[in-house]
Write a structure and sequence with these properties.
The protein is of the alpha/beta class. The protein folds into 2 domains: 4-176, 3-Layer(aba) Sandwich (Rossmann fold), CATH 3.40.50; 189-278, Pantoate--beta-alanine Ligase, Chain: A,domain 2 (2-Layer Sandwich). It has 11 helices and 9 strands. The strands form 2 sheets. A 6-stranded parallel β-sheet has the order 1-4-3-2-5-6, sandwiched between helices. Strand 8 and strand 9 form a beta hairpin. The chain is globular and about 55 Å long. The termini are far apart. The structure holds adenosine monophosphate. Adenosine monophosphate is lined by residues 31-32, 38-39, 41-42, 149-150, 152-153, 176, 178-179, 186-189.
Amino acid sequence: MQMQRIEGIADVLRAVKAARRGGRRIGLVPTMGALHRGHAALIERAAGDGCFTVVSIFVNPAQFGPNEDLARYPRPLENDLKVAMAAGADAVFTPAASEVYPPGFDTWVEVGGGLTDRLCGASRPGHFRGVATIVLKLFNMTEPDRAYFGEKDYQQLQVVRRLARDLDLPLEVVPVPTVREDDGLAMSSRNKYLSPEERVVAPRLYQALKTAAEAAASGERRASEILRRGVEIIETQPAFQIDYLEIVDGEGLQPLNELKPGAVMLAAVRLGNTRLIDNIRLT
Ligand code: AMP
């Protein structure tokens, strides 16, 4: 079957309903494009699960702050179509912003502040409101049985899970492990912004997380001590500015003083003009 390229909201619903009539389950992989191997892993997972796999590509204005990178966010559509097809997508859905947010649009989805005010939500006010709103809209547009999200964006994954649970959405949220470059840097569309010098420094973030996780694995239970090990590594690179480095429970994302099962370490740093995020499980 040829991969379909769909722009209209009515058209994508028609395509998924046809696939469902043909006995297929629907898998949705929401993305903002500039697809890399991390996105491909989500698409391969959905296709591997036997789903009629819809990859949405939409750079969602509602999740960008006024001083963020909406205008310069990469949009290499031709290459994205190739990556999606090679990974096994059945359809690529590229809705127009004017159809997603027509004049007069003014309904927003807010997941509770416990999950959304802290961490990335603290430095990106309104970000998760934009995410929750577009994700629910995409769910309504494509009626997926399963929706695939990367663990790379750990807070986003928990926000989407809570959204699905609190609103009784009839679908399964499927987490997919982070795909990394050979040197450990988590793949991200924003890595393209890094200068060659910054690109050399960037993998230190994951090294810091790994060092901290090793401390936990060898028996350290105090969050402060585990964090200290991570900070030490990050601070070897003056180019990094720490936005946050926290140890939290893996569901509610509340800070922990002592490790417990499910604990996760979450990090965001700035490197020049680029913001990098990453995370690691501690148990
Ligand atoms: P984005 O295009 O950045 O909005 O990401 C779309 C989806 O791909 C989200 O669910 C991300 O968590 C996921 N994703 C992005 N980078 C990676 C990665 N390196 N490994 C796994 N999933 C990723």
